[in-house]
């Protein structure tokens, strides 16, 4: 016995041969160390065959770590298993021997096999064995069944064990009030704060928004910026984007277009379309970075590829106008169409203009009108305005002052001073609508409010005549 105890006590510091001798004498920990040594090639010799031999020996004499390591080798297919089930055998025994990782692995296996009851049992045991991942998975299992009240306890246990995602999920439950009588921004903030300190980027990001919006917490741009920046560092692309916005606007920090550009570029690398768009804008304008139409176009193209309609529209405008010697009606047509497909009404209007003028495409009032109609349906004021003009002239559509009036009135409601002025003229003359000096005066007034000088003049004139 004294010899065995001595060998066991020195297993970690002993040579490989000494550990082998100790394993042969029944010291399970030594078998584990020998197996790991061969698996990882610690003393120059790597051998999966010998690793399995010693780990199996350790597992047979109830060394849980040996069973768990074997389970991992078979589960990851590092070691061949013709049955495909050996990992279950070893993880099951590892769990019986109170190895939390084995219980967690079995829980994940049962969960993938849609065996909810056994999965929860395994996660619960892993949690009881102080593995925060088990607590997390148990909480998630309850959440998936919308049993939020039952999810709270395992999340609390996981958070106490410094499992950041447990803290974060618990914060979400308190923020949303998903468990009865448990809505509390104070508690949500506390859990988000701990999760953020444990490097859960989304927790930092959520907490930043609470400080930025100031609806649930006292508004603090300084705290919001610091947290957005941290979430960005951890890998949350939206955090990079908002840090860029705050640097650009000087919210919570000294205004810096240079830092904003760096943040937007990082956001773009995370495939945040608005980050690419804003980075492109700064490159296009030369704010905070050297002006480069070429690089701006590259950023816009990335954003457009990420389905950002504004970026597609901007690209269309760059190619249509020829900024930076980039004129290409063909490219403009393509990007305007993409913007239109992404529900940007201005993109539809731009395509309509190209059909009306015959730029790249064959001139067609009918197709132009169709695009303007789509734009108007998407609440683009210019689309409604131009369609009203075509309708009043019968170009590409049936001539109708009544229908034109509807388009002009919608354009007016969307903020078009010319739209307001045109409908005012129709009311003044009784074209397509019942003649009404009062309605004409009202719409002249609206056009004036929207900055149209002619509207102001006619409003004053009509006001004197009618009042």
- Please tally the β strands and state the result: 0
**Sequence of secondary-structure elements:** HHHHHHHHHHHHHHHHHHHHHHHHHHH
* Rg on CA atoms, Å: 34 Å
Poorly predicted parts = 1-12
Largest sheet geometry: none
Query: What is the rounded distance between the termini?
Result: 116 Å
What is the number of helices?
A: 27
Helix proportion: over 70%
Structural class: mainly alpha
Q: Any idea what the shape is?
A: elongated
Q: How does this model look, in words?
A:
With 467 residues, the chain is mainly alpha-helical. The chain is built from 27 helices and no strands. Helix 7 runs antiparallel to helix 8 (116-128), helix 18 (293-305) packs antiparallel against helix 19 and helix 19 packs antiparallel against helix 20. It is elongated and about 115 Å long. Residues 1-12 have low confidence and may be disordered.
How would you summarize this macromolecular structure in one to three sentences?
By secondary structure, the chain is an all-alpha fold.
Key terms:
27 helices, 73% helix, mainly alpha, elongated, disordered N terminus, 467 residues, single chain
Q: What is this structure's SSE topology?
A:
Blueprint lengths: L1 H8 L6 H9 L3 H13 L7 H13 L3 H12 L10 H11 L3 H13 L3 H13 L3 H13 L3 H13 L3 H13 L8 H13 L3 H13 L7 H14 L2 H13 L7 H13 L3 H13 L7 H13 L3 H13 L7 H13 L3 H13 L7 H13 L3 H13 L7 H13 L3 H13 L7 H13 L3 H14 L1
Helix pairs in contact: 2-3, 3-4, 4-5, 5-6, 6-7, 7-8, 8-9, 9-10, 10-11, 11-12, 12-13, 13-14, 14-15, 15-16, 16-17, 17-18, 18-19, 19-20, 20-21, 21-22, 22-23, 23-24, 24-25, 25-26, 26-27
């Amino acid at each position: 016995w004294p010899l065995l105890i001595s060998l066991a006590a020195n297993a970690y510091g002993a040579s490989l041969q000494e550990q082998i001798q100790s394993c042969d004498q029944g010291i399970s920990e030594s078998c584990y160390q020998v197996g790991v040594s061969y698996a990882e090639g610690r003393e120059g010799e790597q051998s999966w065959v010998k690793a399995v031999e010693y780990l199996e020996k350790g597992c047979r004499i109830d060394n849980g770590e040996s069973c768990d390591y074997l389970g991992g080798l078979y589960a990851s297919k590092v070691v061949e298993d013709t049955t495909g089930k050996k990992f279950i055998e070893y993880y099951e025994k590892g769990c019986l021997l109170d190895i939390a990782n084995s219980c967690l692995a079995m829980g994940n296996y049962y969960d993938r096999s849609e065996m909810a009851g056994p999965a929860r049992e395994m996660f619960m045991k892993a949690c009881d064995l102080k593995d925060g991942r088990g607590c997390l998975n148990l909480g998630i299992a309850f959440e998936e069944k919308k049993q939020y009240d039952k999810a709270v306890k395992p999340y609390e246990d996981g958070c106490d064990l410094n499992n950041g995602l447990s803290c974060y999920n618990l914060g979400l439950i308190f923020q949303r009030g998903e468990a009865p009588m448990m809505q509390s921004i104070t508690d949500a903030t506390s859990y988000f704060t701990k999760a953020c300190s444990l490097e859960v980027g989304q927790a930092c990001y959520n907490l930043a928004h609470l400080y930025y919006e100031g609806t649930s917490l006292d508004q603090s741009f300084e705290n919001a910026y610091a947290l957005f920046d941290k979430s960005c560092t951890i890998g949350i692309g939206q955090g990079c984007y908002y840090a860029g916005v705050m640097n650009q606007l000087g919210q919570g920090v000294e205004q810096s277009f240079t830092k904003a550009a760096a943040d937007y570029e990082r956001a773009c690398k995370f495939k945040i379309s608005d980050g690419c768009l804003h980075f492109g804008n700064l490159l296009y304008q030369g704010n905070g970075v050297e002006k480069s139409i070429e690089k701006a176009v590259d950023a816009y193209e990335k954003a457009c590829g990420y389905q950002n309609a504004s970026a597609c529209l901007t690209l269309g405008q760059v190619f249509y106008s020829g900024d930076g010697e980039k004129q290409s009606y063909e490219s403009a047509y393509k990007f305007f169409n993409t913007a239109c497909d992404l529900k940007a009404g201005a993109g539809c209007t731009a395509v309509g203009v190209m059909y009306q003028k015959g730029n790249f495409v064959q001139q067609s009032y009918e197709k132009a009108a169709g695009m303007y109609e789509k734009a108007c349906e998407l609440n683009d004021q210019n689309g409604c305005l131009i369609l009203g003009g075509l309708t009043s002239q019968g170009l590409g559509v049936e001539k109708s002052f009544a229908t034109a009036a509807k388009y002009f009135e919608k354009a007016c409601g969307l903020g078009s001073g010319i739209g307001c002025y045109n409908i005012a003229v129709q009311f003044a003359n009784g074209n397509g609508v019942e003649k009404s000096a009062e309605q004409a005066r009202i719409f002249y007034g609206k056009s004036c409010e929207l900055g149209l000088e002619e509207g102001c003049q006619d409003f004053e004139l009509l006001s004197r005549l009618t009042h």
